[in-house]
Amino acid sequence: MLKADPAKAPNKTLQPEKGSTVKKSRFLTPLARKILAINMLTLAIPVAGLLYQGVYKDQLIQQELEALRTQGEIFSGALGEAAITRLNTGQEILNLVPARHIIHRLSVPGRVHARLFLNDGKLAADSERLGGLNQIVEVEDLPEHDSTAEQILEPFLEMMENLTEFTSSHDLPLYPNNAIPVASDFPEAQNALRGGITGVVRQKSNGNLVLSVAFPVQRYYQIAGALMLSKGGAKIDAAMREIRFNLLILSGLAFVLTISLSLYLAASIVSPIQRLAHAAERIRENVGRQDDIIPDFTSRRDAIGELSGVLREMTDALRKRLSAIESFAADVSHEIKNPLTSLKSAVETLSFAKDEAQKKKLLRIIEDDVTRLDRLITDISDASRLDAELSRTDATPVNMAEMLDTLVDMHNTTAEERNRPQLHLDCLGNGPFMIQGIEGRLVQVFRNLFGNAETFSPDNGRISIRLESSDKQITITVEDEGPGIPENKLEAIFDRFYSERPEGEAFGKHSGLGLAISKQIIDAHHGRIYAENRHNPDGSPKGARFIIKLPMSN
After folding, report:
1. Angle at 88 between CA 86 and CA 92, to 5 degrees
2. 468-498, pLDDT tens digit by residue?
3. 0.70 exceeded by the pTM?
4. Helix, strand, coil content of the chain in percent (nearest 5)
5. Strand-pair category, 198-203 with 92-94
6. Are residues 449 and 349 part of one domain?
């Protein structure tokens, strides 16, 4: 009789734990806060720009001093050529009339404050004093009109300015404010009278910068006076204000953009994960309910989509496993109930039986039922452990040709003594016939197939085994010379507890799980097993054929 086929028999049941490990949704979850914090680090770039303002301001000051130096060289050269007069004695003196005229004409285009000091340190000419040294004309740049945006951002601009002053060279000397200055008020002017060229940066009492450079006025080597050019820092302040305004706008845009993108990124990552977690929690608490499904995010084509797909597959496998457990439990209950009922009836009848022949018959029934129960329990135990073993045991390379050759030799060694059918192995091709699998369980499959074939084959018959490889898979065929399989049972023989045995076979020797276990093992190896009948030319059956296909290892 051909052994039956199993649905996979799980080795243990799953019980949901009490309590929930998934927290309720929050607007800012820990993961969202991490994403936000990491993205906020990008704002360190604008902050670094704020700190760089001091350096940038110092660079602007140096550039303005260099411009004053160039302008002063032109001024001093013009004075040396046009305003120095040689006396009959050979002495060179500074002619103040052309000197003052040159200073007034040259200082206006450049908007600089030019002053000429004589060798005795007295002020001889001043571009801001007309007619005489007591008539002062102050020239100041009109402040630019602030835009509405600048007026709104004025507090922030002032804060940035204070930060700039803190990070730059802020220990500047105070600009002297004497009514009629002399050369001793300005160290750079004194140095120019000695032939040196010096630039100095000062600040007024209101905090405005004043840049000064002093040059000696000479035609050849005799110094006739010192020219000092001064310039306010309005241009520098305007440039710095523009930099601060632009930096503030860019920082604000960066802040808004960072927050928006962080929230979007957090929502696109955290929200789906939370939905997956809540769905998994519902399934854990309500195992088996079909209305609780994992959300499908596979269209995202990212890690979350992959996680969604894996969780859906896992949930589907869990439901199938639970269904298999229920079905297996029902089948086991049914199969065990029959011999137990028969055993109970025989035991109850035995106490009333008085005929010895009837007692012996009842005792045989009891013995057969006990034998059947023992066989059922053994096979059920093996089937319940099989699934867990297949999932825990690592696959190793298995040479199918060597394994089948060993099984055939072991069988044929004892077959001749008992008139058992002989096994004949044919290997088509040179191989290698290698697969990745669990050799012990594969041996169990072929022992089951050989045992079935032997049961239905005549004495001294022939069981043919053919091994071949093609299209990256290995095919093993087992053929017997028995009566074949009913055409409507070619698939049912792999059902659990299906049992159809030859007439005269001892009762209880088979549980109907052999082929079911074999199919379970082959399925775990990503293979396929099926059965078909062999026919004579006239169409009459001449045996059964079992075919196994397994993927070849690379």
Report:
1. 25
2. 988 788 999 999 888 888 888 888 888 776 6
3. no
4. 55, 20, 30
5. unpaired
6. no
